[in-house]
Design brief:
With 118 residues, the chain is mainly α. It is built from two helices and no strands. The protein is rod-shaped and about 125 Å long.
């Protein structure tokens, strides 16, 4: 038995540079992997955002925008959903007569029963 322990075969002095080289190599490999991952992932992410913007936005314009009176998706009361391409139909003489009779009847009712909430 020796009084002192035997010398190491691989001194600590040589271990530090190899450890640093390993760290550098690992960081380079990790950076390359991250860059490759972003290179593959970012187009998919951009496509996802474009899909959400166009498709979900079209749905929102169709449903929420449909409450407006005018506009590309607008429909009001009984206009229907797809008739915006055709011009509006002119009312017939009978429809104009009915509208005039309704207006006169409303005026008579207003004369008979005036609104006294003012």
């Amino acid at each position: 038995m020796y009084a002192t322990r035997p010398r190491r075969r691989f001194p600590f002095f040589f271990g530090v540079p190899f450890f640093a080289a390993g760290l550098i190599a690992a960081s380079l490999i990790g950076s390359a992997g991250a860059a490759l991952g972003l290179l593959l992932f970012l187009p998919l992410l951009a496509f996802k955002f474009m899909f959400m913007f166009f498709v979900f936005g079209a749905f929102m314009r169709m449903f929420a925008g449909g409450l407006a009176r005018r506009g590309p998706y607008g429909h009001w009361r009984h206009d229907g959903f797809g008739d915006r391409a055709q011009p509006r139909r002119e009312p017939t003489q009978e429809e104009r007569d009915w509208a005039e009779a309704r207006r006169r009847a409303r005026e008579e009712i207003e004369d008979l029963f005036p609104d006294e909430t003012d």
